[in-house]
Amino acid sequence: TVSEAEIGQIMDVNYSIHGFLPTLLGYGTCTIELAGSQSLIRVKRVRHPQRLQELLLELKHARPQEARQEG
Fold first, then answer.
1. Structural element, H or E, at residue 15
2. CB pairs under 8 A, 24+ apart, for 62-69?
3. Is the pTM of the predicted complex or chain greater than 0.90?
4. Taking CA atoms, which of 1, 14, 61, 69 is between 20 and 30 Å from 8?
């Protein structure tokens, strides 16, 4: 399944790593909560899910600043 969302729609991003091998190898699941939607986007078996969480939250926080600079 393919899902898309605008960065501005992201409300929260969480990640989880369960089990010995996923912990050892750094694999987990990222869960992305979107505004105006009761569904979640789950990205499973992603390497270093905490990095994906950090990247998405950085992009979310940078977007309003970019819009103000353009306007």
1. strand 10-16
2. 63/7, 63/8
3. no
4. 1
Task: Give the type of residue at 52.
Answer: L
Burial of residue 65 (number of CB atoms within 10 Å: 0-12, 13-18, 19+) = exposed
Let me know the angle formed at the C-alpha of 27 by 41 and 55, rounded to the nearest 5 degrees.
55
Q: What are phi and psi of 39, to 5 degrees?
A: -90, 160
Q: Which two tokens stand for residue 71?
A: 């306007």
3-class SS of residue 63 = helix
